[in-house]
């Protein structure tokens, strides 16, 4: 796969080791998880199992995002199982060198998957660009669920940017970083009335949210709805946090309320630790 990726994007893909992977469940709802990856010979590989592997087998569409929500790099593409043993051995050597993880010693249902990108997006602040390609770590420390939930809620209140995963009409996951407010046990965002995420939410309200740090995970599965009747109630919270009155923003003034169904939090290894089913 030859590509026209910029040196900046290539440098980050080569240097970084974790990203957010958005896939689509068989029911048509989004799934979001942090994963290790390696960039090898201008190709991106993941070694995975469980929900995300099942989703990719059912629907290979995937969106992947490097952790930094301020300078996003997002790849949209398809996940294809690797069946060539020589390729597997090359990538396994890369995993050992980069992540100290011998994937060739793993047993069970794990699968090496190559991501074939069809689109790469990256931007910095207001400057946005689009580029098109040419087509063993320690276990997590268990945390008291009530403590983990309080810590997750504190981070949701404090941090500014959250990743939002929705599903497009064609079944592709859509993944984007966005400002948010945590208020009275719910997440609020404000976006354009005709934005991709707003159109997705109106059609399929089940969404997944994630704070940017993929080594200290806070995931929120929830149900979203446009909430214009709450504009005046939420505007002061956005104003305090961002010095921004979304009611005066003609482009991004559509308030959305997201009611959590489940909050998941874990640290380190990519194994889900259930904090609370709401």
Report on the architecture of this protein.
Helices cover 24% and strands 41% of the residues. It has 278 residues and is of the alpha+beta class. It folds into two domains: 7-131, Roll (Pnp Oxidase, Chain A), CATH 2.30.110; 145-277, Roll (Pnp Oxidase, Chain A), CATH 2.30.110.10. Strands 1, 2, 3, 4, 5, 6, 7 and 8 form an eight-stranded antiparallel β-sheet that branches. Strands 9, 10, 11, 12, 13, 14, 15 and 16 form an eight-stranded antiparallel β-sheet that branches. A hairpin with a 2-residue loop joins strand 7 and strand 8. It is globular.
Number of helices: 6
Tell me, rounded to a whole number, the average pLDDT: 87
Write down the CATH topology of the largest domain.
Answer: Pnp Oxidase, Chain A
Quaternary: single chain
Characterize the largest beta sheet: strand count, sense, and whether it forms a barrel. 8 strands, antiparallel
Helical content stands at 10-25%
Question: Which overall shape is indicated by the principal axes computed on the Cα atoms?
Answer: globular
CATH C-level class of the largest domain? Mainly Beta
**Residue share in β-strands:** 35-45%
Whole-number tally of structural domains: 2
How many DSSP E strands?
16
Write the H/E string, N to C.
HEEEEHEEHEEHEEEEHEEHEE
CATH architecture of the largest domain: Roll
């Amino acid at each position: 796969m030859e590509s026209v990726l910029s040196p900046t994007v290539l440098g980050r893909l080569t240097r970084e080791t974790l990203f957010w992977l958005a896939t689509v469940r068989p029911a048509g709802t989004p799934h979001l998880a942090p994963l290790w990856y390696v960039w090898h010979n201008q190709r991106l590989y993941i070694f995975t199992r469980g929900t995300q592997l099942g989703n990719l087998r059912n629907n290979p569409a995937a969106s992947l995002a490097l952790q930094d929500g301020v300078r996003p790099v997002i790849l949209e593409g398809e996940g294809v199982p690797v069946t060539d043993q020589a390729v597997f051995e090359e990538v396994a050597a890369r995993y050992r060198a980069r992540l100290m993880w011998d994937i060739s010693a793993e047993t069970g249902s794990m699968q090496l998957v190559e991501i074939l990108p069809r689109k790469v997006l990256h931007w910095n602040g207001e400057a946005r660009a689009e580029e098109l390609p040419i087509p063993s770590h320690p276990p997590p420390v268990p945390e008291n669920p009530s403590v983990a939930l309080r810590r997750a809620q504190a981070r949701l209140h404090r941090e500014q940017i959250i990743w939002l995963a929705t599903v497009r009409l064609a079944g592709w996951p859509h993944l984007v970083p966005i400002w948010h407010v945590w208020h009275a046990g719910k997440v609020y965002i404000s976006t354009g009335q005709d934005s991709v995420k707003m159109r997705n939410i109106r059609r399929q309200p089940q969404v997944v949210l994630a704070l940017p740090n993929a080594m200290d995970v806070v995931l929120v599965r929830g149900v979203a709805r446009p909430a214009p009747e709450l504009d005046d109630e939420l505007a002061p919270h956005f104003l305090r946090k961002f010095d921004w009155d979304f009611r005066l923003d003609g482009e991004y003034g559509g308030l959305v309320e997201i009611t959590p169904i489940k909050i998941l939090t874990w640290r380190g290894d990519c194994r889900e630790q259930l904090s609370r089913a709401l």
